[in-house]
Amino acid sequence: MNYELRIKNQKISKNILLFFVAIGSLLIANGSKAQSTFSLQQAIDYAFKNSSTIKNAILDEKITDAKVKEFAGVGLPQISGTANTMDNYLKPIFVIPANSFGNPTSEYLRVGQTYSTQAALAANWLLLDATYLIGKTAQKEVLKLTKYSTDRSRIDVAEQVSKAYYNVLVGNKRVELLDANVERLQQLLAEEQEYNKQGFIEKLDLQRLSISLNNLKTEQFKAHEMLELGKSLLKFQMGFNVNQSISLTDTISDAELKNATLAEAPLNYDDRIETKLLKKQEDLNKLNLKRYQYGALPNLAAFGQFNTNHYSDDFDFYKHSAPYFTSGLVGLQMSVTFWNGGQTHFHKEQIKLQIQQNENDLLNLKNALDLQLSNSKVALKNTLLTIQSQKENLDLATEVVRVSKIKYQQGVGSNLEVLDAETSLKEAQTNYFGALYDAYIAKVDYEKAKGTLIK
Predict the structure, then answer these.
(1) Helices 343-409 and 415-450 sit at what angle, rounded to 10 degrees?
(2) d(CA 427, CA 434)
(3) 21-30, 48-57, 254-263, 430-439: which range is least confident on average?
(4) What residue numbers bound the domain in which 177 lies?
(5) Distance from C-alpha of 192 to C-alpha of 208, rounded to nearest angstrom
(6) Are residue 153 and residue 12 in the same domain, yes or no?
(7) CATH number at residue 158
C-alpha cells in the first residue's frame, strides 16, 4: 500500500514539474517574441535602454554626480588622526658650554628618552568661502550640462535608428517586388518553353528571356543580401544582438509621406539641444567669473587638535600605568589674498572674452539652425515631388508590362517588346524605392531640424 502511494506521489510531482516547465517555456517564448518584433518607436525605446553610447552617457552623468558630491565634501568637517612610535637608539647631543655650572671645560650630554609615542587627532572645518559656495553651484550646473549631453546622445541614436529602420522597410518592399518580378518571368519562361516545343517561337527568344531572368535573379540575390546587411545595421544601432532575428511592424507608403506637414511657424531655438548646451556653457562661464570676483573676499575656517605623548626608557607605552601627557587647541583662521601678481585680473579678462565668444556662438547657431531647417524643408519637398513623378513612372511601366504581355500572348507583340517592358519596370521600381527612401531620410532630418525627433 505504501509502495503504491509513493508511486502515485511521484507521478503527481512529475506532472507538477512538467507543468511549471511548460509555463516557463511559454513565458520564455513570449518574452523572446516580444524582444524581436519592433515598431519604430519601440526600436528607438529599445536603443535608449541598450545602446552603448547612451549607457556611457548615463555613466558620465553618474560620474559627474559623484564629483559634485565629492566637491561638496570640501565644506564639511575634515577629521584625521595620526599615531607613531619611535626608538631613539642614538639620542641627540646637548653641549654644555665651558664655565657653565662652574665647570671650566665644555661637556656634552645625550638627552631624551629611548622610546617615545605620540597620537594626535585633528579637525578642520571651512566655515566661510565664497569661491566654495559658487563652486557648489557650478558643479550642479555641470551636472545639468552632462544631462543635456545625454539628451543629445539620445537624439543622435534616435536619428540613426530611424534611418536604419526605414532602410530595412524600403529594402523589404524592394525584395517583395523583385520576388514578384522573378516569379512573373519564370511563368513567362515556362510558357515560352512550351511555345518553343510547339515551334511557335525561336530558341533565340527563349535564350533572351533566360538571360533576363538570370540577371533578375542576381539582382534579387543582391537585394536579399543588402536587406540582411540593413537589418544587421539596425540591430547594431539599437544595441540588439546582431545574431538574433528581428522583424518590423511598421509599414511605409508614399501616401503617408504626402500627409507630412511642413510647419511654417518660426523655429523655437530652445527646442534644439545645441542651444541648451551653449546656454548652459554660458551660465558656467558667468559662474566662473563670479568665482574670481569673489575670490578677494576673506575665508574663515575652524580648526582643532588633540595630542597625547608618552616618553620612557622602557618599551612600555602599551601598559595601562604608562604616563601620557596630553594637549589640545582650537582656533579660527581667516585668510585673504591682497595681491597675486595680477593673476586674478587676467583670469577674469579671459573669462569675459570667453563669454563674448559664447554669445557669438549662440548667434551663429541660430543662423545655422535656421539654415538647417530651411534646407531640410526644401529637401523634403523635393523628395515628395520626386516620389510623385516616380510613382507615375512606376504605374506606367506596370501598365506597359501588362499590355505587352497581352499583345505577345495574342500574337501581335514580340518577345523583345516584353523584355524591354520588364527592364523598364525594374528601373522604375528601383527609382521609386530610391526616392521613397530619400523621402523618409529627409523626413527624419526635417524632424531633427525642428527639434521634434524625440517625442
Answers:
(1) 160
(2) 11
(3) 21-30
(4) 39-76+129-298+336-450
(5) 11
(6) no
(7) 1.20.1600.10
- Quick one: 24 and 136 in the same domain? no
Residue 15 lies in a domain: yes
3-class DSSP assignment, residue 268 = coil
Q: How many Å apart are CA 87 and CA 85, to the nearest integer?
A: 7
Phi then psi for residue 82, to 5 deg, are -135, 155
Angstrom distance (rounded) from CA 390 to CA 402: 18
Phi, psi of 25 (to 5 degrees): -65, -40
* Residue 1 within a domain: yes
Most confident of the ranges 109-123, 188-202, 399-413, 440-454:
440-454
Of 64, 55, 58, 25, the residue nearest 280 (C-alpha): 64
Answer whether residue 80 shows pLDDT above 80. Answer: yes
Amino acid letter, residue 27: L
pLDDT average, residue stretch 365-380: 93
Assess whether 16 and 62 both reside in one domain: no
Same domain, 239 and 364: yes
Same domain, 26 and 165: no
End-to-end CA distance of the chain: 69
Q: Name the β-bridge partners of 95.
A: 108
Q: Specify whether 32 is located in the same domain as 136.
A: no
In this structure, the strands spanning 37-38 and 247-248 are parallel
The rounded percent of the chain whose pLDDT value lies above 70 is: 85
Output the pTM of the full model.
0.79
Number of domains, the chain = 2
Q: Encode pLDDT of 189-229 as tens digits.
A: 887 787 777 766 677 777 888 888 898 899 899 999 999 99
Strand partners, 118: 84, 309
pLDDT over 90 (residue 81): yes
Q: What's the one-letter identity of residue 79?
A: I
Mean pLDDT calculated for residue range 412-427: 83
d(CA 204, CA 346): 89
Cα–chain center distance at 324: 61
- Beta-bridge partners for 379: none
Grid coordinates 516620389 are at which residue?
Answer: 387
- The whole-angstrom separation of Cα 198 and Cα 205 is 14
Helices (H), ranges, 125-202: 130-197
- Looking at the structure, tell me whether residues 290 and 355 fall in a common domain: yes
Angle between helices 130-197 and 203-238 (to 10 degrees): 160
Are 174 and 33 found together in one domain?
A: no
pLDDT score of 100 more than 60: yes
Residue 123 belongs to some domain of the structure: no
User: Roughly what angle, to the nearest 10 degrees, separates helices 40-50 and 130-197?
Assistant: 130
Does residue 173 sit within a domain? yes
